[in-house]
Amino acid sequence: MKIVILDHPRENPGEIDWSRFDEYGEVVRYSDRVEDVASRIGDADVVFLNKSKVTKADLEKCPNLKFISVIATGYNTVDVDGARELGIPVANVPSYGTEAIGQHAIALLLEITNHIAYHDAEVRRGRKNNDTDWCFWDYSPIELENKTMGIIGLGRIGQITSRVAQAFGMKVLAYDSFQNPALVNENCRYTDLDTLLANSDVIALHCPLFPETENLINKA
Prior knowledge:
- The chain contains nine helices and nine strands.
- The protein is an alpha/beta fold.
- It has a five-stranded parallel beta sheet with strand order 2-1-3-4-5.
């Protein structure tokens, strides 16, 4: 069996041991990306990838291919419909980095409301010690208490973000095609997209990239 690993440094910056795959056959790793993906996976039985794009035309050149593993949650890099037509299963990692990504969303929110990086840089360059005022006040902090967060996509990551937002005293408006009544409470409710956009102080996008969600937030 031949196993091909595309995007190798991205999938494994160094802490993952891939040697166990050697037990199953020949393992080929690529550390750069090329347009002609089929030239690298044409004789593969199994393919691991992250950002490399694989089209149906590529898959049609892979007569031995039996399985594709996308080492990420999003799988828009693979023509899934084309793979299905050719009988090639495609797997992803549905709960990859859920807590970390939700935490990162809140970190970005706090940066916007408190300008932490800016003030840190100002203190490091000595402004605090050299300023004659009691404090420098370039930006007013924005308190999250009683603000409204709109969350588009209340899946695993959206739920983490919602939970932390509510802990800050925020109200949550959620828009999702699949509604879970168990997530509704006095501080969190589902609504339509127009209502969410009109009533939110901040909006978090936690939906997968599909044709129907692409450019969901636009100038209009």
